[in-house]
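ENTRY TYPE: protein
WANTED: fold as tokens:
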Amino acid sequence: MIAELLLALVPIAILISLGAWLRHSQFLADAFWPQAERLGYYVLLPALFLHGLATAKLENVPVQGMITALVFSTVTVAALLVSTRQILKGNDPAFTSVFQGGVRFNNYVGVSAVAGLFGAQGIALAAVANAAIVPTVNILCVLVFARYGAGGRMSAAKVARQLALNPLVLACLGGILLQAANLGMPAGIEPVIKALGQASLPLGLLCVGAALELGSVRSWVRPVAYSSAFKFLLMPVVTLFVCRIVGLEGKAAIAALLFQALPTASSSYIMARQLGGDAPLMAGIIASQTLLAAVALPVAVVVLTPWI
């Protein structure tokens, strides 16, 4: 199990490093990166979520139990993060990055690790985890940006508009509806959507690396530690308790626990850039959590799994 988790983290670290080199060596013009981020947020990431949710094979998967455990644990930890906002020094946009670091998860690592552990059944378990967590965290993050983003507080109407037009939320809902209707993806369209989604992962990680400002690393220590404590400690512990309460066990519980102990997603940076967060800090949290996950993720899973 530990070997599979570590192997899933290696390409992420390499792609972030490559993005940093491409930016700082001026191999690509600075004007490239904002356009790449926009492409990822509005086209590639939605394609990834739409395809993954619409085409998942869910036979013999305890869908209701997994969704209950994952949604409840995510909302609980998110509420605790917001309630402790005043403990963390820093401005409001910086808090949006800490929040994302505490609740979002890296789909790439999760799918790779669960598929490596459980094969074809792992892919189905990963699809259910995505169906539960992706819409939940995106809705929560939009609400947090509405309150703490650089643009200031939004009215209820603007918040509703942000949610209604958020491409990640719309893609998740579309995928869930296609799955529920047992329609899947049209034969001629499915390869296109799949290819676009696959492109989102490497491009997103390259953008994270390009955004890294290593001169600011000392100012990351407190927010990185705070968000990582919620991500790698509190989130998996809360998930474990909820799994026990709802009776989720076996491979499904292990998959839920693993997904909730993942480092934050590269899409966090793109959302921070698009919605008024602290994008450089978000890039630092992503890079730091990816490195920390090499230790924290295996420890969380190995220590907590016997309690399932």
